[in-house]
């Protein structure tokens, strides 16, 4: 079996959109997240105690609901993204493949940033301090040295959920703007928020962890998709969206736009 790159029969435009990758709206959004994270910080302990009350922890609907949305986020989001990409490629559905590929890329980007910050800040999870929730238990690089118990900030599940919501919403806003702003976007972001609340309910994260996770995920989803919109001739799209495989004479030939 051999693979030989040749010019694609369908050339993709190399002229990107004139919209810049970062805009003033991004600064406003970032500022809003900073304010929200800071504002939530004094309420971390109060929120943790409220969600851990026995009457809430015993509720079946809360237990099952948190497990469902948590699983949809991780490992669900990367599985869904790669499946969408594979199905889109096999069925020649370009839009489905594009959403799956770009969403999965955004997930990797968001989780990378989140993982670095987890290790860097070394914040203890709510359940670690047995004398009671202590949101002030931080230590630089402790997450790297001591592992998961000290990797609370930010919430990785929330990063994944908001990344998926932002990536899909940004993609579909070009094709179905009305449906995106009235149905798709709201549904995805409400689901992502439910993931964040579930992590607090499960006593794995503080409120400020969740808000920072939402910020990272939102930016990762929007920026990765916008990058592909403004750089349509990028290498990842050339090979993973425009490449095609066709069997013939016992061989498989690869057709893709060549990389300069």
* Biggest sheet, spatial arrangement of strands: 1-2
Q: Outline the low-pLDDT stretches.
A: 1-17, 249-260
- Structural class estimated from helices and strands: mainly alpha
Helix content: 55-70%
CATH class division? Mainly Alpha
From N to C, what is the helix and strand string?
HHHHHHHHHHHEE
Number of strands: 2
- Give the termini distance in whole angstroms: 25 Å
Average predicted local confidence, pLDDT: 87
**What is the CATH topology descriptor?**
Vanadium-containing Chloroperoxidase, domain 1
Q: Largest sheet, if any?
A: 2 strands, antiparallel
Helix segment count? Answer: 11
Proper CATH architecture:
Up-down Bundle
| Domain module count | 1
Sheet-strand content, in percent, reads: under 5%
Radius of gyration: 21 Å
Shape: globular
Walk me through what this model shows.
With 260 residues, the protein is mostly helical. The protein has a single domain (24-230), classed as Up-down Bundle (Vanadium-containing Chloroperoxidase, domain 1), CATH 1.20.144. The protein is built from eleven helices and two strands, in the order αααααααααααββ. It has helices at 24-40, 44-51, 54-57, 60-73, 76-91, 94-121, 142-146, 156-175, 177-201, 207-230, 235-240, and strands at 244-248, 251-255. Strands 1-2 form a two-stranded antiparallel sheet. α4 (60-73) packs across α9, α5 packs antiparallel against α6 and α6 (94-121) crosses α10 (207-230). The relative contact order is 0.18. Residues 1-17 and 249-260 have low confidence and may be disordered.
Relevant terms:
260 residues; mainly alpha; Vanadium-containing Chloroperoxidase, domain 1; two-stranded antiparallel ribbon; 11 helices; disordered C terminus
């Amino acid at each position: 079996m051999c693979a030989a790159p040749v010019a694609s029969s369908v050339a993709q435009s190399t002229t990107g959109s004139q919209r810049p990758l970062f805009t003033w709206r991004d600064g406003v959004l970032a500022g809003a997240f900073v304010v929200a994270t800071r504002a939530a910080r004094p309420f971390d302990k109060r929120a943790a105690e409220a969600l851990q009350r026995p009457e809430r922890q015993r509720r079946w609907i809360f237990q099952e609901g948190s497990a469902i949305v948590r699983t949809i986020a991780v490992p669900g989001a990367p599985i869904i993204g790669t499946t969408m990409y594979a199905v889109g490629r096999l069925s020649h559905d370009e839009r489905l493949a594009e959403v799956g590929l770009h969403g999965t890329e955004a997930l990797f980007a968001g989780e990378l940033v989140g993982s670095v910050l987890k290790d860097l800040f070394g914040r203890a999870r709510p359940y670690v301090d047995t004398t009671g929730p202590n949101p002030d238990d931080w230590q630089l690089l402790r997450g790297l040295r001591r592992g998961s118990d000290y990797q609370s900030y930010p919430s990785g599940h929330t990063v994944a959920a908001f990344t998926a919501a932002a990536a899909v919403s940004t993609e579909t806003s070009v094709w179905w703007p009305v449906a995106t702003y009235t149905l798709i976007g709201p549904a995805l972001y409400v689901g992502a928020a439910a993931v964040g609340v579930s992590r607090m309910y499960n006593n794995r994260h503080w409120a400020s962890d969740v808000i920072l996770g939402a910020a990272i995920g939102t930016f990762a989803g929007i920026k990765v998709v916008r990058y592909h919109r403004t750089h349509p001739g990028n290498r990842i799209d050339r090979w993973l969206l425009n490449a095609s495989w066709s069997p013939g004479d016992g061989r498989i030939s690869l057709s893709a736009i060549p990389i300069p």
